[in-house]
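Can't paste images in this forum, so I'm doing it all in text. The chain is below; anyone willing to post the predicted structure tokens underneath?
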Amino acid sequence: MLVTANQTLLDEVNLIVSQIFAGCWVHLFVNEYYPTPEMLLGDFAEASFVGYVPRLVTSWSAARLNMCGAAISFSAPEQVWTVAITGGHDLVWGYWLETAAGVLLAGENIGKPRPMFRAGQQTALVPNVTLQSG
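Text version of the structure:
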């Protein structure tokens, strides 16, 4: 089988993903924050609604190139959080990814905040990471 340079790059990214991102935790944040390359863990205010716990991600999709070949993306399975008891005042603005050792890997603002006040309300997210140059 002929392997292109792009396939070689994807193979290398998949190796990195399996070593670094598998076993990371997905945390929800409730402050209106827009992650930047300079972000720190202290920039995020973690959700606190009853029923909230960070989710462990053990597998990721295979890395894929975008149409122009300028970015590589991979994603985790959907993660779902449910409010257990009515109360609180959390508005979920996004999520961040953190290793078990407490290293911040990535963060994303989801655009429109999602209320998590009433029992049964849910937030479902598919963590996605895009690597691009520049």
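Residues 5-132 form one domain. DSSP finds one helix and nine strands in the chain.
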